[in-house]
Design brief:
The protein has two helices and five strands; from the N terminus they run αββαβββ. With 141 residues, the chain is of the alpha+beta class. The protein has a single domain, classed as Alpha-Beta Plaits.
């Protein structure tokens, strides 16, 4: 596994620890399955060369929490409880179990309807910028 995979898995572990979240598969799945569920995935990133021998990697990892929309009032009660719960878990683990140097705040989130395959869900999507330790490039001949 890569350091990015390890980081995504740690975010999934924090997501599944939130009250009411029933599933957090290791990788995005084709089927929404049981709700609420959380899926963490990479959405963007950048690499900067600090000096000739070191590079800095920044990655945005998004975690999407999908909720059933059948009774929207109840859905928003769950969402309103999830937001501070998940943010507190992130704040309590700023290195994501040692997989990153740090979470680079602000962590942002959006809420709205989403479609997963043929299922319409209400989604809370957090974007978590993380900074990895400096990497020394490997030179091959």
């Amino acid at each position: 596994m890569s350091i990015i995979d390890d980081t995504v898995l740690r975010i999934q572990a924090l997501a599944i620890a939130c009250a009411g979240v029933k599933a957090a598969p290791e990788y995005p799945t084709d089927d929404a399955g049981v709700l609420p569920l959380a899926i963490a995935h990479i959405t963007s990133g950048n690499v900067t060369q600090v000096v000739a021998t070191d590079t800095k990697i920044m990655v945005d990892i998004t975690v999407d929490f999908h909720f059933d929309r059948n009774v929207l009032r109840l859905t928003y009660q769950k969402i309103d409880a999830l937001i501070p719960d998940f943010l507190q878990r992130l704040g309590g683990d700023p290195t994501l179990n040692g997989t990153v140097s740090t979470i680079k705040y602000p962590v942002t989130f959006t809420v709205g309807p989403a479609q997963w395959d043929s299922i319409i869900t209400q989604m809370v999507s957090f974007t978590i910028p993380v900074k990895f330790p400096l990497l020394t490039p490997t030179v091959t001949a």
